[in-house]
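not sure who needs this but someone in the group chat was asking about Expansin-b2 from Nicotiana attenuata so here u go. i didnt clean anything up, its just raw.
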Amino acid sequence: MATNFPKCLFLWNFVAFCSYLVRFSSCQPSGYSQAVATFYENPTSPGSGGACGLENDVASAPYNAMITAGNQALFKQGSGCGACYQVLCTQDQNPYCSGNPITVTLTDECPGACNNDPVHFDISGIAFGKLAKSGEASQLYNAGKISIFYQRVACNYNTNIIFKVDKGSNPNFFTVTSEAVDGDGDLSLVEIQTSNSSWVPMQRMIGATWSVGIQPDKQKPPFSLRLTSETKQSVTASNVIPDGWQPGSVYKSNVNFPNNL
């Protein structure tokens, strides 16, 4: 008697293979890469801006604790400070994950064991909880370390660039941190122009904080600052640091980058 067993077996294998492809493609969203994530300290932690020079500013607007530290794959010895990432976790990765993406800014370094992973996000406790399904954040916190997906996205803060003069600045040494930088978010160059000089490149001191020596008898305020992004776009904040500037003061500019990559 004739049998259709080989044909049926082929069809069964074909269906199973197609189902595997569909499931695999649904696991990893298009455009995303794989990483792991942990969270800062406790569920109410806003995270830190320490290694990027943002200090406790990350807890309030425009960051609002939606921040992350990263291992060297992300931190890049400080040049990755300010970059924005969309991250999410699916129920295939953890049953308490919502699958809804959140956007976080890289503001700190996750050193040591974080570099045992190819890409590691150490997300603020507040932001980490937003990866969970409604009412199930506590279960996600209990997991401690989870698999996630991530992709680089443009920063968009709905405000202009903010310059914070470092507390260690003085008439001979000027240090400034750039905050709320749209677009790439991370900077490859910061330059300063005094009222009576040409553009002078500043040195990256720590993360998003740049410094330069000043000759107060020759280089007088107001100071203009020119920022160049990772993709070599530039914006100029003219006369943004006024005469009589003070260490620790914050000065808001009237410019920002386009909010795209």
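also The helical segments are 5-27, 72-75, 125-129, 137-143. if thats useful
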